[in-house]
Write a structure and sequence with these properties.
Length: 335
Amino acid sequence: MQDHHDVPSRARRLRRCAAASLAAAAAFTFAGAAHAAYPERAITVVVPFPAGGINDTIARPVLQRLAESLGQSVVIENRPGASGTIGSGLVARAKPDGYTLLLGAASTLAVVPQLNTNTGYDPLGDFVPVGGLASVASVLVTGKREAYGALPAVHEAARKQPGTLTYGSAGAGTSQHMQMAQYNLAQGLEMLHVPYRGGAPAMTDLIGGQIDLLMEPVATALPHIRGGKVVPLAISLPDRSPLLPDVPTFAQAGVPDYQVSTWFSLMAPAGMDAADVKLLSDKLVEVLADPGIVKALGERGVQTMPLPSADMKAYLVKEHTLWGKVIKDAGIPPQ
C-alpha cells in the first residue's frame, strides 16, 4: 500500500528533474544559437576570372574592408574559364551557408547565360544578390598609334574594310565584347571579335599589336595609358575624367549618347538564410560608404555602387533585359 506522505516528496523530485531538464535544454539552445552566429569562419569569394583584371582591382580593397567589418577572413579564389561561367557555376551549386560567395559581373549575370544555355546556372534563379559593389566606365584603346590615332580613323578603316579590324575581350559575353557589339551596332560598323581568357591577356596582345582595339575598363587601362603603351581614343562618360583629362568623351569624339559602364556585385547561392544575407548586405553598404574606399576606388576610375540586396536584384533584371536586346539586335550567335 502506497504511503501518502511520499507523494509531496516525489512531486518535489519530479519538479526538480523537470527544472534541470529545462535548464539543460535552454543551455543547449543558447549554445547552439551562439555557435551558429554568422560568420563563424572564413568566407570564400570566387572571382571567375584570372588574377590581375578589373575584377581583382575592385574585389581586393572592398573585400579586405568587409573582412575587417565582419571580424572574419574573406578569401579570394580565382576560378577562371569559359567567360566566367566555370567559377559562377561552382558558386551556384555551392551549399547556401554564406561561406561561398561570387563576385558577379554584368557579363556573367546579364549576358553570358543568354549566349550559352549550357552555363549550368540561371543568373536570376540560382543566386541571391548580397548587393552592388562598383561600376566603371570604359575607354577605347589601341596599341597602333600611327594607324588609329583618333576615333575617326578607326571608323574610316572599319568602313573601308568591314570585318578586318579586330577587337579583343576577356571572353565571349564580357563587357569588352558586349560594349563593342553595342557600339558597332549603333555606328553601323563591322569588326572581328577576338575573345581571350581574361582581360589581362587581351591587353597584352593589344600592346603587342596582335589585335587593334580594346574597350577596356578605365581602372585596368590607366596604368597602360600612363605608361604610354596604349593610346586612349575616347571615354564612355558624360564629361572628361579628371584621371584622363586629355581623353575626349565619345560625344566629343563625334559619337553622341554613347555612355556605358560595367558593374560588379556580390552574390550568394539561392537559399542562403535571409538574415545572413541582410547582415552581409548592410555591412557591404557601410564599407562602400567609407571615404577611404570611395577614394581608393575613385583613384582607379571606379565608382562605388552601394545597392542593397533588393535594389541589386531589380537592377540585375533590368540589365538582363537590356543586354538580351543587344544580343538579339546584333545577331550574336550562341557560344
